[in-house]
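Entry 14. Ran structure prediction on the chain below.
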Amino acid sequence: MTDATDSPLSVLDLAIVAEGSEPADALRNSVELARDVERLGYTRHWVAEHHNMPGIASAAPAVLIAELAAATSEIRVGSGGVMLPNHAPLVVAEQFGTLVGLHPGRIDLGIGRAPGTDPVTAAALRRTADGLSADDFPQELGELFAFFDGEFPEGHPYGRITAVPGQGSRPEIWLLGSSDYSAQAAGMLGLPFSFAHHFSPHNTMPALEIYRNSFRASEHLDEPYAMVALAVICAEDEERARWLAGPARLSFARLRQGRPTRFPTPEEAAAHDFTAQEEAAVKAVSGSAVIGDPDRVREGLLEFAAKTEADELMLTTMVHAHEDRLRSYELVAEAMELAPRADHAELT
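Output, structure tokens:
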């Protein structure tokens, strides 16, 4: 466990498509964000796989990671995550083997067990109903490891397949989770674990306990390493931070109703009359966010790190304006006294 005051900070990026903008704008913004947070001293920049979501442009993590890694030089870049049920393990091994070949020592492969989308879209991704069940996750995860390591069991039908690139180019692999299933799997496999506190806050502490209790040392990790993702919005004063947080509340309410949209404006969020049902749904998640001025955010992050004993915190900042997102990460870096990387001004 890292001391709370020394916990590394990382970034979870959903490539937000804001109302009034286009997906191409969101992708360019992600590149600029990666350059900026690298300069500020953040440890990782991960992108999350989502499909059929008008407000999220990170549908193809491997493609976006390639661009982010090419635009930076030191920060680790990866997926938070690749949803394994959507992809053939061989394809994932080849994609991330390619990334490792191009950017050795900087690529993370965070793997999720859920499709991250609706059933119809999930079926369209694989063109079949086969392999879409989360129950197949252990088998598909085992195949993925075997393609990277070239170690299929004797007689396995894929034993004659060599992933090129892929075999011998294994990235740093994480398991992602919002419940105890992946926590236990990560522990038993001796892998680092990342928990999605930002949308499953009630399961955070039980999952972390299960992960640590079930951990077995592996060739990749001697001790458990837990990273926790949480929503953070920082502005110069509390009132502005709350104003910037309004669109995330409205976006989540719409998502829960099955009608996701492009990310709304603060004005639209302020004008929305939330129903009691919407308020209840939003409160269950938004109450876990850390929102405020730099002093309040620093206090909140230190309290959270101490409570969870997280080895690393991953911050996701969902605001409408790209400039406000950049400013939030900058204020957090200053408040948490991150060490800026030298000689990176030219990258921005």
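Strands lie at 9-13, 44-47, 76-83, 107-112, 172-177, 193-196, 226-234, 290-292, 312-316. Will compare against last week's run tomorrow.
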